[in-house]
Amino acid sequence: MTQKKMSERVIEGLIHASAAIAILGLVLIFVFIGKEAVPLFTSPEARAEASLSKMFLAQVPEPGEPPTHMWQPVSEVPKYSFWPLIIGTLKVTFVALAFAFPLALGAAIFTSEFAPPWLKEVVKPVIELLAGIPSVVLGFFALLVMATTVQDLFGLDYRLNTINAGIALGLAVIPIVFTVAEDALTAVPQSYRQGSVALGATPWQTARRVVFPAAFPGIFAAGILGFGRAIGETMIVLMASGNQAIPSWHLGYGFRSLSATVASELGEVVAGSPHYHVLFFIGVLLFVFTFLINLAGQIWVGRFRKKLTGEQ
Question: What does DSSP assign to residue 66?
Fold first, then answer.
């Protein structure tokens, strides 16, 4: 066996080992989180205090009062309703996508269709550089700078609210959506553009009626990946949301997300208590949901690339 073949086999073995280690690490993380959440269903004490019905159905706090959803795990009568957390997570995610997706898609279309090569080499790295900014820095910026500006601009009563946190979260989502969308637009065969221009279409008509529809599966995948990135973010939401577990869809109020709840409460919770196991159950939900969202995005990207390259 030649030295070249031996080197290739060593490199191939290292690649396989790296993939196996990554998969093993992912499995171990899920097993650890799941192990800590299982007592929520096996322990009589935990089931009595935090059953699935109490987490997902409305509860009556006091006799004669209307059913309500509340997250108050350290009150005299602990309440573990997930709905304030789910509502907070979804509304900040949608605000982030509403802010980030049009900007990222517009930048991707400009970069792939209209920008000269020298400008493309500047715009693309600058936008992707946002991905390297730590989320705690974006949260700090939203807390000290953006909060007052957003409050004054929209005339809100609270500095820390859904709009403030959503815009800050959108800054973290932009690089992901831009990168995937720009790759999808660039991957459209050049013959599509040439045929459109030959028929008399303008560059803008070509981009809107030919390139965009052809790249739509990849653009849709970019939105899915951005959604998965936003729904699992912790530090930005923790610092810019106000941390109020209010079951309201009003964008001017503070809120509490699932991930921020785990980050803010896990450090002080009593190990082995029902509250402790509920927090790990939240981690299981986030892990599964984020995994499925990212898997769906990757499948869409794979199908899109096979469609453009003609692979079966």
Answer: P
* Spatial contact of 245 and 70, defined as CB atoms under 8 Å apart: yes
Tokens (6 digits) for 51? 């059953």
Tell me how far apart the alpha carbons of residues 75 and 66 are, in angstroms, rounded to a whole number: 19
Distance of CA 1 to the CA centre of its chain: 48
Q: Does domain 79-309 have CATH number 1.10.3720.10?
A: yes
DSSP helix, strand, coil percent of the chain (3-state; round to 5): 75, 5, 25
Q: pTM for this one? A: 0.85
Q: Which positions ≥6 away from 238 have C-beta within 8 Å?
A: 139, 259, 260, 263, 264
pLDDT in tens, 189-241: 888 888 888 888 888 888 888 888 888 888 888 888 888 888 888 889 989 98
How distant, in Å, are the alpha carbons of 15, 18, 48, 216 from that of 10?
9, 12, 55, 40
54-80: per-residue pLDDT in tens? 888 777 666 666 667 788 888 787 888
116 three-state secondary structure: coil
Residue boundaries of the structural domains of the chain = 3-53, 79-309
